[in-house]
Design a protein that fits this description.
Layout: E1 3-5, H1 15-28, E2 37-40, E3 56-58, H2 65-80, E4 84-88, E5 99-102, H3 107-110, H4 117-133, E6 136-139, H5 142-151, E7 160-162, H6 177-188, E8 194-198, H7 207-215, E9 225-229, E10 242-244, H8 250-259, E11 262-265, H9 274-281, E12 286-289, H10 292-298, E13 302-305, H11 308-319, H12 334-351
Parallel strand pairs: 1-2, 1-4, 2-3, 4-5, 5-6, 6-7, 8-9, 8-11, 9-10, 11-12, 12-13
Helix pairs in contact: 1-12, 6-8, 7-11
Amino acid sequence: MKILLDAHMLGQKETGNERYWKNLALSLAKFINPKNIILYSNLPKEKLPKEFQKFIIFTPKFKNGFFRIFFGFNQAIKKFKPDLIHVQNFAPFKKTIPIINTVHDVCFKTYPETFSKKSKIAFNFFFESSLKKSDAVVVPSYFVKNMLLKYYPFLDEKKIFVTYEAADPIFKYIKNKDKVRFFLKKRFNINNNYFLVVGNIEPRKRPKEIIYAFKKILKRYPKTLLVFAGPNKLKLKEEKNIRILEYVSDKELNYLYNGALALIYFSLCEGFGLPLVEAQKTKTPIICSDISVFKEIVKNIGLFAKDKTQLTQKMLFVLGLNKDKIKSRNQFSWIKIVKKFIIPIYNNLNKK
């Protein structure tokens, strides 16, 4: 079986989306010959990390998404003749082989004002037709499955597969906290207690509300920091007690989790939330927005906040908490996800 993966996000600093395709590809290579896995990549092979050199790489002439939909996918299909193509959100304009479509969320429906004009055009014109072409739709939670059925009732429920996602293996608990403090001081000049915010700094993640809630604790805990780790799409400025690190490597992020008082994930809408499982792997307390999907993912181990006032209250609670007593829960590994869910989907479609 030969598979084409839409891995155009590799090397693009796309945080959660990039990690998804990285771990999917590397885990698939445990079960399928890497020479039968073609990665559609915006970067040429020599610019990708060493771990991807074992795959077949297709690099299109043009890197934009519209070219990928109308021409790029079909060029790769014509050249390598795969049995299946696995995409994210958008299928090839012309369908020639079975299509598996990963849909991480439908936030463009519920909070369209938080998306760029380009993204809204793409979703408004191509997403529904892509769903109709898809032979299987992979979603990361039952919440996303239910939302898809609500907004796109033509979908056959039997074609939607819920596969929870896993943290990258690099995320793990570091018992030696002196080692963590040394790394954070040397790399980021962080030597005070801090709350950590992970992911793109964009309206949907409510960074300004987080900052407002955080400033309320400073009278009692004036040395505490708020640290953002992720591309600064809103161009927020650093302030006293507020650090904006932009994109960090996974190794650096692992140390940031291990040193944090808690992860703050106050998003308006998500389909899953990889930082939640990354925080669990590092035994980092979680403060998150009170939305259905987060209750599905972290259940009784998250501190849920409905508004800015509650967010401040949860921060104050964590400041008096013994982090080592925080509950954690084992999650799926990527190997198990691919073996139990993804490969069977591929095999089923390949037989048709």
